[in-house]
C-alpha cells in the first residue's frame, strides 16, 4: 500500500471525487479500528464521519467479522428469486421489530440509491394495485439527496447531480422548497423554530397538479448531503397531515438518519411522525457489506397480495437482494446495537455534543452551527466566487492533522461512530477549531 505510484492510481475512476486533483496528492486510508483510521504510513486519523455515515458501531467489530466469515464458509451465495434462506428471513424479522409500529414488511436492496428507487416504484405500483393508477406523480424537495439512480436524482434537489441528465429525469416530478433558513434559524440547537409553514408547499402542489395524480412525497427527515438541514418544529407533522388528507404516501429516506444517529433507532420515532415507507442502508450492516432495505407498511404490502396465487406480485428485485453475507453482517450489527444500547446512545451524548458544536460559534469563517443527536453542521462563509473552496481546505487541513470530516459546499458535516467517547468529542472540536484558525 505504501508504494502506490501515479500509474497505480490511473485505472480507478473515483466516485464524487475531483479525480485529477486527488491523484496529484492522494489521501489514502489503509486500516481502521474503533474510532480511528490509519493511513498506509500508520498515521492515526480520528473518524468524525463514521466512514460515510455508516460505521455506527465503530470499525473492526470482531463479531461482525466472525459472522460474515462463518456465513461465507457455510453458504456464499443463494438466489432470492423464487428461493429463500434463513438469514434473509431472520434479518427482515429483526428489522421489522425495530421499525415504527406498522412498518413491518421489508424489501432488501444493496444501497441507499436502490432503496429509494425501490420505494418510488412500490409507491406508484401500490396505487395502481388499488385501481388508482393515475397517481404517478412524485414529489421531492429542493436540496434533497436520494442517491444517484434516475428516480433518486429526479426527486432529489441537487443541481450538480441533475444538470447532465436534465432531459432524462423521470417525468411527473415536482419539488417542495427546502427548509434551510439562516436568516431566521441560524445557530439553532436541535430543531429550528421557524419554517413549519414550508410544508404547506405540498398543498400548493396539490392545488396545481391535483391530489389524484400524486403518488408519494419523499424527504429526508434530516437532509445530510446538502449540509445538515434540520426539520423545523412542526414541519414533518404538517407534511404527514397533508399527505393523509390527500391519500398521498409519505416516504422518509433514512439512509443517514437510521440506526441510532438521532438518538432513536429511526428519525421517524425520534420525531414521532410515522411515514408509510422508510428507506435505509449504511448503518444496516455497519457499512461493512453493501446492503439497503425498504420498510413498508403492511397495508401497502398487502395491496400487492390480491392477485391469483402463483402470480409474482412485484416485478422488482436484485441478484443480491438479501445477500447471505450482508444478512449475516446485518444480524451481527443489530445484535451489537442492541447489546451496547447504540440505537439510543446519541441521546445520552447529545447535550455534550451540542455544546461542543456551538462552541465553534464566533470562530473564523463560521456563519452557523447546528446539531441533532450525533450530527453536526458547521456552515462557513464561502470565499467570494469560490463556493466550497474554504470548507475543502479545512477538510484537507484536518486530514493532515489526523481528523476525518466531510464537507459539502461550505458546510462541514460531522456524524461520528455512535461509540464515540467524550474525549473524542473534545479532540474533534479542538482540531476543527485549530483548522478554522489556520485556513484563510
Ligand atoms: C438520504 C440518502 N439517500 C440515499 C443515499 C444513497 O445511498 P447510496 O450511496 O448507498 O446509494 C444517501 C447517501 O448518502 C443518502 O444520504
Structure notes:
With 440 residues, this protein is α/β, with parallel strands linked by helices. The protein has a seven-stranded mixed β-sheet with strand order 4-10-9-8-7-5-6, with helices on both faces. A four-stranded mixed β-sheet has the order 1-2-3-13. Helix 4 runs antiparallel to helix 14 (324-340), helix 5 (86-98) runs parallel beside helix 14 and helix 15 (342-358) runs parallel beside helix 17 (422-438). Strand 14 and strand 15 form a beta hairpin. It is globular, with a radius of gyration of 22 Å. The chain has helices at residues 6-10, 19-24, 50-53, 62-74, 86-98, 112-129, 150-155, 159-162, 182-185, 201-209, 235-246, 267-270, 298-303, 324-340, 342-358, 389-400, 422-438; strands at residues 31-33, 36-38, 44-47, 105-109, 137-141, 173-176, 214-219, 249-253, 277-280, 292-296, 366-372, 375-380, 403-404, 406-408, 411-414. Bound molecules: pyridoxal-5'-phosphate.
Sequence stretches where pLDDT stays below 50 over 5 or more residues: none
Major β-sheet profile? 7 strands, mixed
Structural class: alpha/beta
Could you give the count of β-strands?
15
Query: What's the Cα radius of gyration?
Result: 22 Å
Distance between the termini: 33 Å
Helical fraction equals 25-40%
Small-molecule binders here are: pyridoxal-5'-phosphate
Q: How much β-strand is present in the residues?
A: 15-25%
Number of helices: 17
Shape summary: globular
Could you write a compact summary of the structure shown?
This protein has helices at residues 6-10, 19-24, 50-53, 62-74, 86-98, 112-129, 150-155, 159-162, 182-185, 201-209, 235-246, 267-270, 298-303, 324-340, 342-358, 389-400, 422-438, and strands spanning 31-33, 36-38, 44-47, 105-109, 137-141, 173-176, 214-219, 249-253, 277-280, 292-296, 366-372, 375-380, 403-404, 406-408, 411-414.
Amino acid at each position: 500500500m505504501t508504494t502506490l505510484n501515479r500509474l497505480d492510481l490511473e485505472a480507478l475512476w473515483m466516485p464524487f471525487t475531483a479525480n485529477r486533483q486527488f491523484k496529484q496528492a492522494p489521501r489514502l486510508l489503509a486500516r481502521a479500528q474503533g474510532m480511528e483510521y490509519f493511513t498506509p504510513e500508520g498515521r492515526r486519523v480520528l473518524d468524525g464521519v463514521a466512514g460515510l455515515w455508516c460505521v455506527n458501531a465503530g470499525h473492526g467489530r470482531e463479531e461482525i467479522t466472525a459472522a460474515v466469515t462463518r456465513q461465507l464458509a457455510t453458504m456464499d451465495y443463494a438466489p432470492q428469486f423464487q428461493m429463500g434462506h434463513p438469514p434473509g428471513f431472520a434479518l427482515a424479522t429483526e428489522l421489522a421489530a425495530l421499525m415504527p409500529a406498522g412498518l413491518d414488511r421489508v424489501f432488501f436492496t444493496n444501497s441507499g440509491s436502490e432503496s429509494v428507487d425501490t420505494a418510488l416504484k412500490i409507491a406508484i405500483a401500490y396505487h395502481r394495485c388499488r385501481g388508482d393508477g393515475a397517481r404517478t406523480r412524485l414529489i421531492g424537495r429542493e436540496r434533497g439527496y436520494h442517491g444517484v439512480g434516475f428516480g433518486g436524482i429526479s426527486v432529489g434537489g441537487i443541481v450538480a447531480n441533475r444538470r447532465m441528465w436534465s432531459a432524462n429525469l423521470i417525468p411527473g416530478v415536482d419539488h417542495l422548497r427546502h427548509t434551510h433558513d439562516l436568516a431566521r434559524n441560524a445557530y439553532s440547537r436541535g430543531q429550528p423554530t421557524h419554517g413549519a409553514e414550508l410544508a404547506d408547499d405540498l398543498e400548493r402542489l396539490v392545488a396545481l397538479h391535483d391530489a389524484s395524480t400524486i403518488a408519494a412525497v419523499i424527504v429526508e427527515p434530516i437532509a445530510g448531503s446538502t449540509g445538515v438541514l434540520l426539520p423545523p418544529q412542526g414541519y414533518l407533522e404538517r407534511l404527514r397531515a397533508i399527505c393523509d388528507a390527500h391519500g398521498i404516501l409519505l416516504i422518509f429516506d433514512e439512509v443517514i438518519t437510521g440506526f441510532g444517529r438521532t438518538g432513536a433507532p429511526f428519525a421517524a420515532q425520534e420525531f414521532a411522525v410515522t411515514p408509510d415507507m422508510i428507506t435505509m442502508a449504511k448503518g444496516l450492516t455497519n457499512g461493512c457489506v453493501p446492503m439497503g432495505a425498504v420498510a413498508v407498511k403492511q397495508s401497502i404490502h398487502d395491496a400487492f397480495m390480491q392477485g391469483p396465487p402463483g402470480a409474482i406480485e412485484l416485478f422488482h428485485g436484485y441478484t443480491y437482494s438479501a445477500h447471505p453475507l450482508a444478512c449475516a453482517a446485518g444480524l451481527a450489527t443489530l445484535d451489537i446495537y442492541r447489546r451496547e444500547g447504540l440505537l439510543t446512545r446519541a441521546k445520552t451524548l447529545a447535550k455534550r455534543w451540542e455544546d461542543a458544536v456551538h462552541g465553534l460559534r464566533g470562530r473564523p469563517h463560521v456563519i452557523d452551527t447546528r446539531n441533532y443527536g450525533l450530527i453536526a453542521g458547521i456552515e462557513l462563509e464561502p470565499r467570494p466566487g469560490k463556493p466550497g473552496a474554504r470548507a475543502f481546505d479545512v477538510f484537507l487541513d484536518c486530514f493532515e492533522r489526523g481528523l476525518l470530516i466531510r464537507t459539502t459546499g461550505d458546510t462541514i458535516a460531522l456524524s461520528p461512530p455512535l461509540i464515540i467517547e467524550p474525549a473524542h468529542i473534545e479532540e474533534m472540536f479542538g482540531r476543527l477549531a485549530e483548522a478554522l484558525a489556520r485556513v484563510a
